[in-house]
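Reply to dn_fold:

You asked what the input looked like. This is it:
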Amino acid sequence: MPSEPSTSYFDRQTGEVRTLAEPSDGALAFAYGTPVGRLLLKVMASPWPSELWGRLMRSPLSRGRVARFCAQNGITNASLTRAGFAPMESYRSFAAFFERTRPAPCAGEPGVLYAPADGYLSCYRIAPGLAMDIKGTTYTVPELLGEPDATRYTDLQGGLCLVFRLSLTDYHHFHFPAAGTCVSQRQIPGELHSVRPVAAGKRPFSRNKRSVSQLVLDGFGPAVMVEVGAMLVGGIVQDEPTPARFAAGAHKGHFALSGSTVVLLLRDNVILDPDIAPANARGLETRVEAGTRIGRLREGVGNA
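and this is what came back:
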């Protein structure tokens, strides 16, 4: 059996550097790592296999997969209930379990930035030619936003790009990082390629399904929030209707049946919490939870 890839991350709760082992996936290794696999990738990433897989995972026939998944990943009923989830036997399908929800309390203090999702946080400074290094793969801001010309986002130059990488075992819902308003929201269709480590170097974001929301956050000003779907189903489900006005920590949507990523682009008026920046400087991701504080508005700076 192939060995499991692992990554190091900073655990905010304990202050320790830990190792996250991620389950290996022979099918993905074949698809991304062999010439024949890459030829088949277009078929694997097309809509009909995703739709078929989604129907199966939403069927009661997939219920037995819940216990197997939990056993493989060290999830117990005790850990589920401790985190605010229902026990594993409560879910009628694997999809219902994967998309499980829990309270995501948020203090909602003015001038405070909160994590929009559970996951592993990496931070970048937005600058011309920025190459975001995400598990060994690089992306520019225009590629991420699906725009050849990113001049409309020049007010974000010098700001922060925050990347939240969700693992398969995470809570797959996302929230607004501060109070504010939604200016626009658009979908970028595309082939669904994996964002897992085995796909590194194959530029998966360039053809992933994405949802791009242009926001104005109270105090922080203009911001962009991007949700990225992955292989297989890769669904991005936004709450309907999209709220014109939202509170900090308000539910925004969820990912359907896929490992996923959330990206937040902000102006140069944010100071990250003091435990995050040193970990990022060491090349470590930081483990965060939705609704927890990750930064604040720099004093004397408004959204004007």
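Helices lie at 26-33, 35-44, 47-57, 64-72, 77-82, 94-98, 141-145, 276-281.
Hope that clears it up.
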